[in-house]
Protein 1
Amino acid sequence: MTVWDRPEPPTRPVPLDRERIVAAAIALADEGGLEAVSVRKVAAHLDAGPMRLYRYISTKEELFDLMVDEVQAEILPGEQPGDWREALRILAQRTREAALRHEWLADLLGGRPTLGPNGLAVTEATLAAFDGLADVDTVMRAVETVSAYFIGAIRREIANLRAERATGLSKHDWQRAHGPHVTRMLATGRFPALAKAVYDGTDVDAETSFATGLDWVLNAVAAKLTPTPT
Amino acid sequence: MTVWDRPEPPTRPVPLDRERIVAAAIALADEGGLEAVSVRKVAAHLDAGPMRLYRYISTKEELFDLMVDEVQAEILPGEQPGDWREALRILAQRTREAALRHEWLADLLGGRPTLGPNGLAVTEATLAAFDGLADVDTVMRAVETVSAYFIGAIRREIANLRAERATGLSKHDWQRAHGPHVTRMLATGRFPALAKAVYDGTDVDAETSFATGLDWVLNAVAAKLTPTPT
DNA sequence: CTCATGTCGATACACTGTATTGCTCGTATA
DNA sequence: TATACGAGCAATACAGTGTATCGACATGAG
């Protein structure tokens, strides 16, 4: 029985951990969207059988949770500026940028409570920015309001971006982009305000739109933090 | 060959239209969530073969679009109050109520542009509320900001509601509700601001939280509509 | 060397969205 | 009245999904 007759010893399965799994899932989602993430495909990228992943996650939804938490790490800023306004703005912007890097994030944002370590850290950072500026309840309202705003704004931005892409890369020509349907609807005269907005409105890029709205919301928060004394 | 020997003539398929299809899909989603909506199940509820639906929609995503548009009809208020603030508040509240009736709406809100007739009508109503109060661009920013807020807020509310429900109907006991994990994390001392918020914060019901944030955002909009004269 | 343990791969199941195919039946024409 | 046509439908099929179950097998302990 020479070496040539004996088969090589069975290769041990490549070591695995959540980090690797999540990384593979994120890679798949980054190009192909959330629906490109299937247990089988993730496993294949790791040279593993599909069922093996279920030692690390117990359901596919948990995988999504891990993906979101992983991306939250990208959002955490290194240093917190002293100015609460600046701190909040940075957090919002970084969330937006993360969503632009990982468009699938828009599908998940706000969909489930973020209780992972990084998610909690982001919440902590947000709350910490208000430290000492108001009572706990006001701070809670402020955090909720600001984050509700930017989650909604990010979702819409990504949704529009995809819609534009789907209608063949037309840049900012709303009506032609979304095809004859909207044009026809507007022509019915049943939507005068909308028609005016579409035809007379200035095309403003998504970033400034986001920043403007954010600024408004921060103004609102500021007004509540330092209530105008009688 | 008596009547008794002859089989009844083959029953003509029950007539179908988008309205019926969408209604069936909504019924399924209302109890069971979006994932309970499958082409086969919708068709079965209508005594039809699955493939028949593809005469009315060309993809499942289109079915979702129709569902959203259908629910938007519930949002449209009958009469528009003259006060823009009141008008916006009503639109936001009605959207929230619709989402509470149809929780799956939270999963779809903001996910795609709403170009259906009812969706356009809602946008029209929103824009119309600002008629004559500011230039087109300011109005656009205002509409975007307010709707971004309430979409984000509704999503979070539904997400929390589901999370609570999943952890066994515990009412407002955040830490106990989400199990030992959060408690343990808070005990690490790495999230002081969060811990303070959880332990010292007042439990406020979702509706007032929503209304409060909405009010703040509306304040911000108001400030931009009537800029303080020098 | 043997045995227990825990992990993995294979297999299986119920189900998904949708393309294709050919039948069937109501209608229009000859 | 007989025939051809064409639309709308059901049936079938396919590739893929998430996940339960189970048998084998390598690894560590005794």
Note: Chain B touches chain A through 61 residues (CB under 8 Å).
Protein 2
Amino acid sequence: MPETINTATCSTCMFKSLIFQKLEKEELDYMDQFKVEKKYKKGEIVVVEGAQIKEFLYLKNGLVKLFKTGIDLKDHIISIAKPFDFIGFLSVFSKNQYQYSITCIEDSVICFVDMDSLKNVIKENGKFALDILSKMSLTLDDILSTRIDLCSRNLRGRISLLLLFFANDVYHNDSFKLPLTRKEIAGLIEMTTENVIRILSEFRKDGLIHIDGSTIQLTNKKLLEAISTAG
Amino acid sequence: MPETINTATCSTCMFKSLIFQKLEKEELDYMDQFKVEKKYKKGEIVVVEGAQIKEFLYLKNGLVKLFKTGIDLKDHIISIAKPFDFIGFLSVFSKNQYQYSITCIEDSVICFVDMDSLKNVIKENGKFALDILSKMSLTLDDILSTRIDLCSRNLRGRISLLLLFFANDVYHNDSFKLPLTRKEIAGLIEMTTENVIRILSEFRKDGLIHIDGSTIQLTNKKLLEAISTAG
DNA sequence: CGCGGCTTTGATGTTCATCAAGTAAAGTGG
DNA sequence: CCACTTTACTTGATGAACATCAAAGCCGCG
């Protein structure tokens, strides 16, 4: 059960994104009335594919994954979202139902902004609208590139890519605790659990990484990068 | 060489999309000054990955493909756009360069709207902004679903899907002329040219389709649908 | 005509998924 | 707290799906 918390107002929010900074104080105060913040534990579900969209979601803290269930009944990753990302983004302006699911892969804090009030602000503030458009465009570009990257790489390349992603983009550290099970990783990058394990072992034997439980340390990033590009 | 043509004003444009219909006459007249229409022949290139984005592109007529070149140096489809689609959509609000290429797979007419003027209109008209957001959101949903569909299907499933797409969504006819070479199809759906050919032959032998040069007729749609869902 | 690109088919090989089986770890109820 | 169940992890063997390679026919075009 996510715990509802109540922190600062929007106008004093530490996590106010670049985009929301463009709003006037009165606009922020307006939205303030229509937002709720919730705390989730690792593994908890935020939204399920098909659920009604009522709020605009903003990830303040933690790590979540967006995914869709394919006709093969497997989960397919759309993206892994980091703090400051708008996570209920993708169908929010066009559909009434979520077209994908979101679950937390780390403890997370998510801000729920009422959709209708947000739309009101957009209607009144064209610059804000442009910024939302821009952010949306960026997100989309990112997701698409990642997907195409995945499709053009073999299994080794995909694992390298994922490891480098966690080290460089998420944890900013060559040593980190994998927040996902092997099975989840498999879903993320379109392969089987067994092969995830096999290739991680392979990388360990080849001295590319060091594994200690769920902690992974990248010991030869150059080579990992080479594999991710060559694959 | 695309031929520049000059047709009606925006406000009387037959192809005015649902979205542009929400603009006031004066807004349309304003944009009118900043638009150019161009006629392309099948096979011609509209934009190349990396080119500067200066205009917002609107497909009035024809059929184009959006694709990105992967690290495997193969082309990967993003989508096939039909008339009334905004085709220069994906990075237009966030980047200065196109993140993908566009070429015509049929003779096409494309309307080029100056990006800065469009942004001006968006800034002034919040409802229009919301509509653009909505359209963008829809497009994105579509592209993502298609990609995930592709990833969760085997080769036979993908070919079925593509054939059904052309018959149902593009030509609205069970018999049509394939506008793409086998090689291009391969790029579209992440497989090799040889396998495209092999599976098409297979479908022909099994009586699912009838092939006459580049004309294809779907003779057993039920089964094709079954294959596309099962695969 | 002859060159290059598209198409087609067959033979071969690699990559990867599936199946099976066993160990370890983690949660569950008495 | 311990037996019990479940879930995660690991490794090997096997086979299917698919890519690659090779060769030949076809067609448009300078």
Note: The radius of gyration of chain B is 19 Å.
Protein 3
Amino acid sequence: MISKNLQKQVYNAVKTVPKGMVTTYGEISQAIGLKSSRLIGKILSLNTDFKSIPCYKVVKSNGHVSGYNQGINKKIRLLKADGITVKNFKIVNFKEKLFKFSGK
DNA sequence: ATATTGACATTTA
DNA sequence: ATAAATGCCAATA
């Protein structure tokens, strides 16, 4: 189990991502103050509470969409709904869609 | 204390 | 391009 405090930090970070933007596990981990992306994936997997946490905005650093308990297909669909173009499980213009917390 | 695992990232070859 | 190795944090056995 992950400390709820960690989860809370992850949720906060994900919610900070503006519409039409996505983020990566690495960015979130940095935003939390860690350097490991694995924690993020695990925490999100424990919750997958897409009602409150838009974890569909979280993708891999290379722009490849992965990880979604509800189904990767669903995640892509949600991304498209946010204005993100996904092509063959990859985000188009990923760099332009990537939102960096880097900072505060 | 160590070993394993997890929706991963980065570097090197 | 892919494959292998290393790093990293937290929880569990």
Note: The two ends of chain A are 27 Å apart (CA to CA).
